[in-house]
Write a structure and sequence with these properties.
This protein is of the alpha/beta class and 149 residues long. The protein has a five-stranded parallel sheet, covered by helices on one side. Helix 1 links the parallel strand 1 and strand 2. Helix 1 packs across helix 4 and helix 2 runs parallel beside helix 3. It is elongated, with a radius of gyration of 20 Å. It holds the Pfam family PIN_10.
């Protein structure tokens, strides 16, 4: 499949996807001559005409704008969206983890799909309580933990 990364997809995410998603052509919009700044209503038909099958984006508002939704539907392209709500290193780390965990399975399903699909990858919860488990062995010693340590 030919996968087009929308211009809101970061370069580090592009590099990560290219490293672990094999067997698919992955193109960043910013690498295509004269595609930068293309409005979404024009992007989807243009991408379809150029032989792309899928667009990856983090623009959640796209599906709330009637003209963009019409352009997506008319294009026949699969659309994969991932959440990206956090700034800085945390944000790019979460985006990479979310896409790394979900994109390969999504692409497998899309290869077999009979018709257009809209895919929303689920984000990874960045809160410390969900990402970390910290044990103080002085108060809650693990099994076989020596006394007095």
């Amino acid at each position: 499949m030919r996968l087009l990364l929308d211009e809101n997809v970061s370069r580090p995410l592009h590099q990560a996807i290219s490293a672990f998603v094999l067997g698919h052509e992955i193109v960043h919009l910013l690498d295509l001559d004269q595609w930068s700044g293309t409005r979404d209503e024009a992007l989807y038909p243009r991408a379809a005409a150029e032989g792309f099958h899928v667009i990856l984006t983090n623009d959640a508002r796209q599906m709330q704008r009637p003209r963009e939704v019409e352009a997506i539907a008319a294009s026949g392209l699969h659309r994969i969206e991932y959440p990206h709500k956090h700034p800085g290193l945390t944000g790019i780390g979460l985006a990479i983890a979310t896409v790394a965990a979900g994109l390969p399975a999504a692409l497998e399903l899309l290869v077999e799909a009979k018709g257009q699909r809209l895919v929303m990858l689920r984000g990874i919860d960045p809160t410390p309580a969900s990402r970390l488990r910290i044990i103080d062995p002085a108060t809650v010693p693990p099994k076989h933990w020596p006394n007095g340590m």
